Amino acid sequence: MRQTSSPCTTSTRPATLASVPSRSVPATCALALLALTAGCRRNAFPDVPAGYREFAYVANGASNTVSVLDLVYLRPDRTLQVGINPTGLTANPIRNEIYVVNTGAANQSGSVSVIDAESNVVTATIPVHRQPYFISVDPAGRRGYVANSGSNTVSVLDLEHHREIFVAGTGEQPGVARIAPDSRSLVVTNRASGSISIFNVAPYKPSPPYGQILTLRAAIPGCPGATDAVILPDSSKAFVACSGGHQIMAINLAAAPDSWAARQDPSLTTDHLLTFLDVGQTPVHLALKPDGGELFVSNFASDSISEVSTWTNEVSGTYTIGNKPVHAVVSADNTSLWVSNFGADSVSLYSIDDGKLVASIHTGSAPDALAFSADEHLLLAADAHSGDVSVIRTNGKAGPALFTILPAGSSPNAIVVKAIHPTP
Q1: At a CB cut-off of 8 Å and minimum separation 6, what does 232 contact?
Q2: pLDDT attached to residue 44
């Protein structure tokens, strides 16, 4: 167990002062931070078992690096060199690996760097195609799906052997490729063509010949600037942000022919448009509650969020949140929405149950991507303009507050967290 005494109240983890403004920590704590290498310690934070490790990985687009931040001791761990212009990150849910999408130069093929999260070293680089931006991993942790915007394709990766095994054509400038929780459907948003490509995904095979892994089931037009997408936990619907306008698209995803849903309603066996929902201007990001009951839309040009019922496909309301909201995350208990306000240098806390703005926390310059620590006592915001990560304490005695700021690289644009538990 960790020690709980400190020069600044009580704690379980040390922190570094980094570039945090002096007004954001108590004066006595700031003095202690200057005097002690370990720094100020947080109070009321759950203990973790010996050997537990937790890291945040931050893609620095203009530095061609990934910053690794130690979330047990709240300090920089190391900086890893990856490919040109890293723009997307995801963690394997089963394996201790992190995948970094390297967009590359305009006329060059991109790649995916593989980071071993146990040793925090780059162990492999997987070539893909031009201008990849995003990767998703299936729930079994065996396949990755990469949208290649510059080649109008999606790559399928074998994550056990770190290689590309299939390529399929999409619409123009695919941005996001989301694999459904049941691993049957892949939804790809095509920004330039304003369309959605939906693929049937063949069952996993551990070795070649792999066969036709992706088969196009449907192409649905009418979504200008199609960007982000989410899929419900039961894999029945997808929602897509049409960032070129003021709507999101609700889509039925085809149920398996032998499923209960298909037997009750044969129309559910086809992929089809359900409706368009009016939200704010320039919807850029969708945040789904873990229970799948509602999603929240970040409306960049309207300084607002929209709340959508995924059951009825209706907008419950649109609310002012902050200047240029770009990203949001929902707490595991489905009660709290955190939104990064790119134009306000702040993160807003919105109470889902109460339907109101609860707090606004100052961050570094231009906060973008957000990620929780494993236990959600910390929220991390990648500050695109100041090149650092704001660490927000979500459950302080006086409410949420900025705890510290940790250095990253130039133009951080994505962040993901991986916890490694000790072997029994």
Answers
A1: 238, 288, 292, 310
A2: 53
What is the per-residue pLDDT for 268?
Answer: 83
pLDDT level of residue 45 (50, 70, 90 thresholds): low
CA distances from 357 to 180, 257, 279, 309 (A): 31, 44, 18, 19
Q: What is the pLDDT of residue 38?
A: 37
pLDDT digits (tens, 9 = 90+) for 208-224: 999 999 999 999 999 99
d(CA 93, CA 138): 8
pLDDT band at 12 (very low <50, low <70, confident <90, very high): very low
Are 77 and 36 spatial neighbours (Cβ–Cβ below 8 Å)? no
* The pLDDT of residue 2 is above 50: no
Lowest mean pLDDT among 6-10, 189-193, 299-303: 6-10
Residue 290, preceding bond cis, omega within 30 degrees? Answer: no
d(CA 316, CA 258): 34
Q: Measuring CA to CA, which residue among 172, 186, 95 is closest to residue 136? A: 186
